[in-house]
Structures are given as structure tokens and as C-alpha cells.
Amino acid sequence: xxxxxxxxxxxxxxxxxxxxxxxxxxxxGNLKKVLSKLKIDSKIVxxxxxxxxxxATGQVCHIDLPPFWNNLSKLKRVLNEMLPPxxxxxxxxxxxxxxxxxxxxxxxxxxxxxxxxxxNPFEDSFVTFLNSVDFxxxxxxxxxxxxxxxxxxxxxxxxxxxxxxxxxxxxxxYRHKDYLVLHFEANGFLRSQIRLMVGALLKLDAKELQEQxxxxxxxxxxxxxxxxxxxxxxxx
Length: 236
Prior knowledge:
Layout: E1 2-9, H1 27-37, E2 45-46, E3 55-64, H2 72-82, E4 87-94, E5 107-115, E6 128-129, H3 135-141, E7 147-150, E8 165-176, E9 179-186, H4 193-203, H5 206-213, E10 229-235
Parallel strand pairs: 3-10, 5-6
Antiparallel strand pairs: 1-3, 1-4, 2-3, 5-9, 5-10, 7-8, 8-9
């Protein structure tokens, strides 16, 4: 039986989501270790990878279960009992045998959270603190990302991808109490793309951002910190 797991995690103390040979301290590395104890040796396929320090509220993975694991509600409970408290399984459901967590995904939704104030120890791992963010400028310029673009200037050097063209369906900013939330929805994202998009959005003016986006000029931009980024939802 193939099933899809929807998981949430606090990525602060993990080396990203992807399993690594050099360290088991990743999201999938921890999940694999627990599944192995439950005699589930299936390959874990995630909808996409998140970098070190990035969080998720709706990451999706698929696995193939052996016949003796047919009680999915029990599996969810046992997984949550065995996984670290910073990783939670929100849902386990049966899917078609052809379902693929990555290739079946149609849209990916991310949020980036900024707080316009001095940092505090209780939120430091979960939001990016910045002083004097120009909300009106941010709210206006973020819309430049909407549409199909070549994001060659918005991906980490050394990225293994056949094409840097992606289509952004939604990009908008809104305030929620003391927080500035940046919302991005696309058919896919390149490695570190969103963090570089946020970095450019906060540093460049509209003309410079347009030139960066159209690959007419390449401005040096640092990626925004990982702690403010959340993989929010995968749409199938």
C-alpha cells in the first residue's frame, strides 16, 4: 500500500530535510530511522527539499507499506510517539500506486515571516527580525515575481537543474499583527530561490528587481535567513 504522510517540523536543529550520508540529523534521516524500527524499509520520497533551519507545516512524503501495516491511524500514532517532538506527522492516508510526492505535485506554497522589531529569544528561531521594513514597497514589488520567469539569478550556485524557468502563480505580502508575511505559490522552486527572492525584495528597488528578474543585470544579494521560511502546503 502506498501512503502519503503530511508532516510538520521545526527545522532549527536539523541539517535540512533531505537524507544525507554524512549525517542522520535530517528530517528524512530521523523518519527513516523510525520507519526502520517498524520494519518499514520503503524509500521515502518527499515533495521537495528544505534547507538547514527551514520549517514546514505541510511537507508531503510517500512510502510503500508492507502488508502487515494496514492500520494507518495506528501508524500515525506510533510514528508521533517515536519521532522527536520537533517532527510531527499530521496525516497518513492511502493514495494511488502511481502517486509521487514530488512529481504529482502541481503547486507548492511557501511563507516567509518577518517581524519588524528587536529580536527576542522566544521567536528568534521562527521569524526573521528586521527593523524599518518598507511595507508599501514590499507589498508593491513582490508582485513583480508573478508569472513565468527565468530565475537563473535566484538560485544557489551549483544547483543541479535542467531549467531555471519557473512559474509563480501568487506572490503577495500582508500584515498579521506585528508580522509581515510574504506568500509565494509556484509550480516549483529552485534551491534557495525563495530566500534569494526575499533578499532581493528587501534590498533592491523596483527597477533593479526587474533587471535581476529579466537577467539583464545581476545584483549581489544575500539570501534571507532560513529561520523565517516555511513550506506551508503542497497542492496535488
